From TrEMBL:
Full protein name: Cyclin A
Span of the signal peptide: none
Claim: Endoplasmic reticulum is one of the keywords in the record: no
Native organism: Hexamita inflata
Pfam families named in the record: Cyclin_C (PF02984), Cyclin_N (PF00134)
Domain of life of the source: Eukaryota
InterPro entries assigned: Cyclin-like_sf, Cyclin_C-dom, Cyclin_N
UniProt keywords, alphabetically: Cyclin
Domain Cyclin C-terminal intervals: 197-317
Amino acid sequence: MDEQNDPLRSPNQQVEKNPSKIEAMLQPRNQSINCLNFETYPSGVMIPADLDICNITMRFYHSYQQQYEMAYVHQSADYLQPGQQITLSRIDIDQMFTLLTRCHLVLRLRESTFFQAAQLLHVLFQKMNAQGNRDFPKILCALLFICQKYEPTDRSIYSVTQITHKLFGQTTQVKPDTILDCEQLVLELLDYRLETTSPYHLVHIYGQAAEFDAKKMNMVLYLISLAACCPEMQRFHPVSIAAASVSLVIDHYNMQWNQSLNFWTARKLHEIQEEKQLLKQIWLNAFEQGRLKQVNNQIYNKYADPRKFSVSLETPLYN
């Protein structure tokens, strides 16, 4: 599938409005109709051009609920679990996500690769102790080496030598064989389970439902990128994070949550308030740190670029 027709296309592409509607018989008032429970589309609901792919995507991500709860419901925000001796500090964690973002930009990898690597990094943090801190850059290099090979693409794949030189420099003492050893370690720590689910795979459809232009879509992508690097956000379902991000952008631009969003997210606004409040606080923190230049936030810097419409420079809603 070429990138122009890819439903998970680059965030730099404008999401076009699709005005097509399908008329359907009215449903009973007391029945909540959404993308998980329907035979016909309610009148007025946005129908995306890539309808079949959207239906498959939505049902997969919503059906992930039970697996998600089993995997994350007992995960603590700082990765401390009974019986484990993990002494990672929040500074360690933040530095690794800063490094992840920087490496992703240097390598110019797909956006989906960033979100996959971020989620797998949260898993690795639960399984690595402080003794491995000095090897984290090599572990991260190996993780990106794995993730760039995971999703089929027409782009070239970095060899282990190329990715080592790209991230550590041409004169580095880090050997490609060391990265290959780290690759094996990462795969074993992950139990060879590389499939991830993230809000990134959902916001394309939600953006169409909200009738967002390219600037608003970049604002959504900025918010879910911040969420991807935050341990506290990992306890929420990806659908809820994506919906909360869209809702915050709607609030920011004085728009309205609409029927199409109710349908495609299968969420009502009152159901995502906790996610919205936490994500809003993360957004405010990133803005203040970026404005005062207290922290070198790579995600803030990325979305300050005019090519991203400088969305990170916009003042968030404080109320």
